[in-house]
Amino acid sequence: MFQAREVLWNTISEDYKNGNKKHDAWMEIASEFNLDKKVIEKKIRSLVGQFNRECKSKSGAIADESSKWFAFKKLMFLKGKISQVQLSMEGCR
């Protein structure tokens, strides 16, 4: 669901800086899980932070295959992207 809402993570998206669209995207995800928006944001930020740490601990092409963390492959769409939600993706280049 996060990947489908590029407004939340894709810095080249036309709507990336649109706060209303970001809010709506977070609310859609939150309502799907029947949770508060802040809870969803915190969880996704945590997952993205762990993804960053996994990327930094790996190098090059090996990173794509070597992580055993459950969400690593699911979050590979973030590789190389930098945004507020992702914090820093320096290790995933």
Automatic annotation (TrEMBL):
Listed PROSITE patterns: MADF (PS51029)
| Domain MADF stretches | 1-83
- InterPro entries per the record? MADF-dom (IPR006578)
Q: What domain of life?
A: Eukaryota
Q: What is this protein called?
A: (apollo) hypothetical protein
Q: What is the species of this protein?
A: Parnassius apollo (Apollo butterfly)
Q: Write the lineage as a comma-separated list.
A: Eukaryota, Metazoa, Ecdysozoa, Arthropoda, Hexapoda
